[in-house]
Each structure stands twice: as structure tokens, then as C-alpha cells.
Amino acid sequence: MMTPAENKSLRESMGLTLHWLADRWGVTLQSVKRWENGRTLPPMFAKDMIVLKRTFDDEVARLVDSKEECVIVPRRDGDFKSGEKPAAWSRAVAQRANEQTGIIIRFADEDEDTVKA
């Protein structure tokens, strides 16, 4: 069983919003908020959080294994298609890979002069 604090911490560490989870699970925003404020997360949603965490970890591992020097991430949702996940997910994956390898993280709309300044 996942505590409300574990649920919220996990969600935030993966760059997922309350709105995104509500949409994914087909529930109200208020329901997701209640699960983070003291109510127990239903087992089927707790299992989905574990699936999301495994997917997140797999994406980090792929980026680390790629040996890339730089990764381009979206600044905001809609900047470029990165699958069904929000832009913050891509940034969180990149940050985790950065912690392990030092990979450079850049926004798609940055130019070299901006990065070096």
C-alpha cells in the first residue's frame, strides 16, 4: 500500500501533475487531491503509479546508456510531441540522467549563445 505522502512524492518526482493523473485515470481532480491529502490510493491506481515509475526508470536508463552529450527537452507542454506524458516528465527524466552522467539539458528553442552566457 502506498501512503499519501509516497504517492505525492512519486508523482512530483516524475513530473506528473494532478490534472494529468486525473485525466489518465478518468477521475476528478478532487479525487486525486484527496488521495494525496490522507485517503488511501485505490489499488488499481497504486499499481499504475508503479507502472509509471518503472517506465520513468526505463527512460532514464535508456538516456544514460545512450552516451549522448546533450538532450533536448520541451520547455512547456505542446512544444514538441513527447508521447502522452507532460513536458515536466521529459525534464525530470533528463535531470535524473544528468545526475548520473552529466548530460547537458537544453530547451529546443535555446541557441548556443544563450546557453554559454
Structural description of this entry:
With about 120 residues, the protein is mainly alpha-helical. It is built from six helices and two strands. The protein has helices at about 5-15, 20-25, 30-35, 45-65, 85-100, 110-115, and strands spanning about 70-75, 105. The protein has a two-stranded parallel ribbon with strand order 1-2. Helix 5 (about 85-100) links the parallel strand 1 and strand 2. Helix 2 (about 20-25) packs across helix 3. The longest helix has 23 residues, at about 45-65. The protein is elongated and about 45 Å long. The termini are far apart. The mean pLDDT is about 90.
Helix content: 55-70%
The proportion of strand residues reads 5-15%
Number of strands: 2
Strand order of the largest sheet: 1-2
List keywords for this structure.
117 residues, mainly alpha, two-stranded parallel ribbon, 6 helices, elongated
Write the layout of secondary structure elements.
Blueprint: H1 4-13, H2 18-25, H3 29-36, H4 43-65, E1 70-73, H5 87-101, E2 104-107, H6 112-116
Parallel strand pairs: 1-2
